[in-house]
Amino acid sequence: MDDLHSINEAINARAGRKLLPSIIVSVILLTLVFTTVVFAKPVFGLLVWLAVMLAIRELVNAYKLGGIELPRLAIQIAGTALLIAAWYGKVSGLAVATAIAIPNVMVFILFKGPKDFVRRAASAAFAVFYLAFLGGFIILLAHHSDGAARILTLVVLVSCNDTFGYISGVLFGKHPLVPAISPKKTWEGLLGSFIFTPSGSALVFHFAMHKHWWIGAGIGIVAVITATCGDLIESAVKRDLSIKDMGTLLPGHGGILDRIDSVLFTGPAVWFALELITHFKL
User: What is the mean pLDDT of residues 196-207?
Assistant: First the structure.
């Protein structure tokens, strides 16, 4: 038992997190996602809303640690409006709601006082755009006649990128990708993502989306870039605010935002790609 404990501790140290709790949480989340998107899309929409609300809470708390005070409730109301607009008004509703919500949040902040207005307003606008606007594309993917297959595609893309990038990085990682932002992310891990994500994407496009495999492979390459950038953006925010994790809600992962950062950047890319496929009948 001591040997097994030592091995487990060595793996955790190498990975930078507790692996077993991380796997358990991932399985639970995936079960919730696919059960609701297949059998109860409104419940899935509520799960997305809950995730975005919790992520806003985490980001606002992180801002506070960095000396930036923001009205959390106002941002959450704006985020809720964006997600409702995406559900009922599709992409045009999401766009219009964003154009209305961000200026209103900025005016609300102005009425709280002019001190540090630019800093607070920019931070609030970033929060609304980053979490609610980008999160709205997950709603757009799900609230479609083929919503289950579209969400499956998104999950496979992000999971392949994160999982195989993580495994490749743990096993072979020696050369940091962007050490000033994310010291544990390596070029070897990125290469693993580029090898396996297009393969997984090709399979899901062929068997679930019933589209050409080579289209899926191409989108898989794009997804590696968007997912990696999403992860780096969140890491940069944490570095700038001098925090390790956005929260502690999910054992082995950190906060909600630590779990959905790649999804937020990849969702719009997948939605746009599928819209192009539909438009050009590929």
Answer: 94
pLDDT for 270 beyond 90: yes
pLDDT of residue 217: 95
| Distance from C-alpha of 207 to C-alpha of 144, rounded to nearest angstrom | 18
For 245, the token pair is 């994790």
The CA-CA-CA angle for residues 85, 97, 64, to 5°, reads 105
CB atoms within 10 A of CB 280: 7
Best CA proximity match to 185, nearest among 172, 198, 171, 166: 166
**d(Cα 160, Cα 196) in Å, to the nearest integer?**
7
Indicate the burial class of 279 (C-beta count within 10 angstroms; 0-12, 13-18, 19 or more): exposed
Among candidate residues 114, 108, 73, 53, the one with its CA nearest the CA of residue 247: 53
**Both structure tokens of 91:** 């992409």
pLDDT of residue 13: 53
